[in-house]
Amino acid sequence: MPRGLFITLEGLDGSGKTTQIKRLAAWMQKRGLHPVVTRQPGGTATGDRIRALLLDSGSTPIAPMAEMALMFADRAQCIAEVIEPALTAGKIVLCDRFTDSTEAYQGGGRQIGSEPVLALHQLICGDLQPDLTLLLLPSLSICLERARRRNDRQAKAGSDEGRFEQEQDAFFRRVWEKYRAIAQREPERVVLVEGNLTVDEVHEQIVEAIAERLIVAGQKT
After folding, report:
1. pLDDT the model gives residue 72
2. Which domains does the chain have, with CATH numbers?
3. Tens digit of pLDDT for each residue in 58-72?
4. Which end of the chain is more exposed for a tag (fewer CB within 10 A), N or C?
């Protein structure tokens, strides 16, 4: 059986990833492709516990290296439990965040640098690389406004995943710039969807990029 297709969506919180991965999954379902959808951190029982620790704004301060290690612990579990079995079975995997997020947030935002992140990725993840990464990159101000508004709504509903949103704008500027650097470094893998586009405009660009990869992979569209 041919190996499946591994597709990741990346971007800052507030970039629209959650909305777009749902729309993309629905687009694929209508075409009989039935993707496996997961997220990081999370996506497994172990990962969800790690996610709660990492994202809860009430968590005690986490050292940058400990934060990065937790991200990779979550990722290793998701690869073993969800991603690799699905790819081996020939399925399409849609993953909300992967190692690019760690490089952007911990490598860039926390100023750990790219080299430690990529070294851990090779060691812990077996250097598993997405076949395609869709990087959503609206303006930084738009991302921050959306993310903080969303976290306010979640907090009122009793859900708290706003630890990163407590950071200063300079942190997110470093994350945003690191994402751009990743796209420039790996243009064959990363499709950059840039600018303050509408939900429909972003979806159209995503579908265009996905359709091209599916044709190359021999999948129907």
Report:
1. 98
2. 5-217 (3.40.50.300)
3. 777 899 999 999 999
4. N
